[in-house]
Amino acid sequence: MENGTYKHAPAGDFVLPFDVVGAGIRGRLVRLDASSARALGVHPLPELAARITGEVLALATLLGTALKLDGRLTAQTKSDGPLDLIAADYYGASDGKPKGVRGYARFNDAQNLGEKPLFASLTGSGSLAITIEPQRGGQTYQGIVELSPKGIAASAETYFEQSEQLPTLIRLAAAPVFVPGSKEPAWRAGGLMLQVTPGVARAGDDWERLSTLAATVEDLELLDTSLSAETLLWRLFNQEEVRVQPAEPIAFRCDCDGDRIATVLRSYSEQERAGLADPDGTIRAKCEFCGTVHEIGKARLS
């Protein structure tokens, strides 16, 4: 709200919180555009691998903003398939930095996946871990669930069922956007989360009705920047009274730090540091999330 007037959510890079009045149901809608394009542009991936990674970016953003976190939330998969690692970090706003997200995936393309690989063939068996690290006070928390062969959203729903015991519906999507003049696509990611509000009285059939409506959302609707967030919510819940809160902007953000790397390297022996250095004596450490190469010279290690 600005001066009592509602300000519509932007086309992309936002999270829009909402609740269904009188039903004890809350939700969040996320659409990433420039932030997901930046995150997924560092390491080109096969299309399905990039889609899955984009979904993890959207999931981390949904969960991190729902917690109003001032620190970091990490959604990470580890598995025995060719896409054996995905990590997405959501950072809460702090120290003058905006709310933001970054991501990385490791893909071993040595395996033959066939023409149309499925989620389970890329990830194999493994787990989804949600790690919450508050910046000020509080303890680090981690919840781990088995990866569902049905995908990231199904795995996240299992996480809430087991750890929070809250009925939760999650829909996630990611897709490439081809820009004229560019060989590589930009990636968008989006998601919708609907959840029973803890401790709020509600009618018994509200969850079944509203979750059924939310499940009809299509991937294109989550990703289409020409479709406003408010219009999408009206499409889904036009028979309900939906109350939206101000949209929260999301940026690409990577908190990699050359000084932190130098501090770690000082604990190494001179022989170990020499083995890491290039011929000019400089140690170059590349951030897998943003692609920045941090150059650590001898002067910074003395």
What gross morphology would you assign?
globular
Poorly predicted segments: none
Structural class: alpha+beta
Structural Rg? 21 Å
List SSEs in N-to-C order. EEHHEEEHEEHEEHHHEEEHHEEH
Can you count the helices? 10
The residue-averaged pLDDT reads 91
Number of strands: 14
Ends distance: 52 Å
Helix content: 25-40%
How much of the sequence lies in strands comes to 25-35%
Largest sheet: 6 strands, antiparallel
What does this structure look like?
The protein has 302 residues and is an alpha+beta fold. Strands 1, 2, 8, 9, 10 and 11 form a 6-stranded antiparallel sheet that branches. A 6-stranded mixed sheet has the order 7-6-3-4-5-12, covered by helices on one side. It has a two-stranded antiparallel ribbon with strand order 13-14. It has helices at 34-41, 47-66, 119-123, 152-164, 206-214, 219-223, 229-237, 258-266, 270-276, 298-301; strands spanning 14-20, 25-32, 72-79, 83-91, 100-107, 126-133, 141-146, 168-177, 186-196, 242-244, 248-249, 251-252, 283-286, 293-296.
Helix and strand topology:
Layout: E1 14-20, E2 25-32, H1 34-41, H2 47-66, E3 72-79, E4 83-91, E5 100-107, H3 119-123, E6 126-133, E7 141-146, H4 152-164, E8 168-177, E9 186-196, H5 206-214, H6 219-223, H7 229-237, E10 242-244, E11 248-249, E12 251-252, H8 258-266, H9 270-276, E13 283-286, E14 293-296, H10 298-301
Write a brief structural summary.
This protein has 302 residues and is of the alpha+beta class. The chain is 29% helix and 30% strand.
Descriptive keywords:
10 helices, single chain, alpha+beta
